[in-house]
Amino acid sequence: MDILPIRIEPSVQGPFPVASSVGFPGPSQPIVFQEALHNHQGHFDLATGVFTCTVPGLYHVGFDIALFQNAVKVGLMKNGIQIRDKQGEVSDSHEQVSGSSIMQLEKGDKVWLESKLHQAESEKGTIQIIFYGILLDGN
């Protein structure tokens, strides 16, 4: 029996993990990120905090938030519609808040993480955020 070599093709649409440790904007505004951990195609706009889909397919999109003496409430948004929300609050220790969703994206769809708290509510302690998206299956 011959074993054929397996060749893994690089994804046409790479992942977009981005990170931030700056305070949140006011409510109902996208969270802006300072650092792209991987964004070679440039489909995630650091200035606006928005990912724009160029390759239709099934995506895994999520976030991990580390809190210290702070509160957070975020919404995972797709084209202005909230897909998932999470909140957490911690006064004297650390807390982890995570969420994700598998979603079908079409070309031009926009995905972002949105603040749901007033800015003053999230300025007390520190917050570190990782927001990511990975193409699972392109159409």
Briefly characterize the structure.
By secondary structure, the chain is mainly beta.
Q: Main attributes?
A:
139 residues; mainly beta; 0% helix; disordered N terminus
Poorly predicted runs = 1-12
Major beta sheet, specifics?
8 strands, antiparallel
| CATH topology-level name | Jelly Rolls
Number of domains: 1
Tally the beta strands: 8
Encode the helix/strand succession as letters.
EEEEEEEE
Radius of gyration: 17 Å
SS content category? mainly beta
Helix content: under 10%
* Global outline: elongated
What is the average of the pLDDT values?
78
Euclidean distance between termini CA atoms: 33 Å
Please tally the helical runs, counting DSSP H or I stretches of 4 or more residues. 0
- Percentage of β-strand residues: over 45%
Q: How would you describe the overall organization of this protein?
A:
By secondary structure, this protein is mostly beta strands. Strands 1, 2, 3, 4, 5, 6, 7 and 8 form an 8-stranded antiparallel β-sheet that branches. It is built from no helices and 8 strands. The chain has a single domain, classed as Jelly Rolls (Sandwich). Residues 1-12 have low confidence and may be disordered. A hairpin with a 4-residue loop joins strand 3 (44-45) and strand 4 (50-52).
